[in-house]
Amino acid sequence: MRSDQDSPLQFPCEFPVKVIGAAGGDFLEHVLAICREIVGEIPPEAVSTRTSQEGRYLAVTVRVEARSRLQLDSLYQALHASERVLMLL
């Protein structure tokens, strides 16, 4: 893991996380629940969604207020561990 000193990011900072999964069901709420565990409350204006052309996939972008590189790494690990997440950017 890289430290904050090794990171090109300056913390705290706003950081967009894009998560892609199957559309339908509660995928959006699933992603937000994972994000809230790591970064705390997320305002509605920090969340955007886009459904794929055929409606099979949902892309969720969450702009989080990252306090450290360790926090971002933890968030990506938690999202990656979810079987419902197909892609993470």
From TrEMBL:
<comment type="similarity">
    <text>Belongs to the UPF0250 family.</text>
</comment>
<protein>
    <recommendedName>
        <fullName>UPF0250 protein EDC57_0583</fullName>
    </recommendedName>
</protein>
<dbReference type="Pfam" id="PF04359">
    <property type="entry name" value="DUF493"/>
</dbReference>
<dbReference type="InterPro" id="IPR027471">
    <property type="entry name" value="YbeD-like_sf"/>
</dbReference>
<dbReference type="GO" id="GO:0005829">
    <property type="term" value="C:cytosol"/>
</dbReference>
<dbReference type="InterPro" id="IPR007454">
    <property type="entry name" value="UPF0250_YbeD-like"/>
</dbReference>
